[in-house]
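Lab notebook, bench 4. The sequencing result for the construct came back, and we need a structural model before the next group meeting so we can plan mutations. Quick request posted to the team channel:

Model the 3D structure of this chain.
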Amino acid sequence: MPKLSVIVPFYNVQQYAPDTLRSLHRNARSDFEFVLVDDHSKDETPVILERAAEGLSGIAQVQYIRHEKNGGLATARNTGLGAARGEYLTFLDGDDWLAPGYLAELVSALEGLGCDFVRTDHVQATARARSVHRAPVGLRGEVLNPRDAILPADRTTSVDYAYAWAGAYHRRLLDRGLLHFTHGLRTAEDRPWIWKLHREAESFAVVSLMGVFYRRGVASSLTQIGDARQLDFIRAFDQVIEETAADRDADRLLPKAVRTYCAIIAHHLADESKWEPSVAKQLRAMSAEAMKRMPQDALSDVLETMDMHRSSKLRRLRRRITTAKAAA
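Done. Here's the predicted structure in token form:
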């Protein structure tokens, strides 16, 4: 069994894949496994991956898998999870990269703490600019209860730091069904995943490692494209609300889930200029319906305590629901 499996999905990233693969080379060990999943790229990415897999195979264990059709990031990660053999698992996106020696430090931290998973800080790279982003947990290097890290509802907490690649996970979580992503989600795929992890895992820790470089502003990234695929955030957060409502601590946890959902809706409404006109209309309609599905008492509390700018946008959207009901 490899000590660590690194699952790396790629899709049309020929410009960035060489940097990603070089960083894997600089982290390679004979007991590390790299699971490279090409999600049916249409550019030169598969050629780059085939060449890299040959070069890496002499210094690490490598699997190269190519999808026959594009399925999105969540599905590609699930393919990697199905193939991975490691005692520990982590993720990397095909346009990001790692600092030399980072993976060895990550494994050492997880082994030393003995918990279900660890979370790390990361560096955001936008063109030549670099900025540090820290996991929103103050205690470092101490084993904690993941459920406790969901709250408080009115502050940024661990479930808001949803990056799957910012950490590593013991295989027992995979065996328990806690590491798979919702099939077909093309955006916000980390949101139901991080909530499930924090509700159902037994222990975690945050460590002050900063070896992941997250590339922002990539033209092909869904965060830069205002088409209908971005609307998958509604499906993702509907799942968060539904699963949290069935939790034994639903009364405590639902206000946080509703507040986060509302904040994401308000964020997208504030950035309507990036959307195609038909998609912007769809965004408003789907967001209004989503608010209708939320627990109404929790929604009212959120609108009362949220800042005026965002709450006014959401109240207008909520009034549309009420007005439509009255007209019907």
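Residues 90 and 168 are 5 Å apart (CA to CA).
Will bring this to the meeting.
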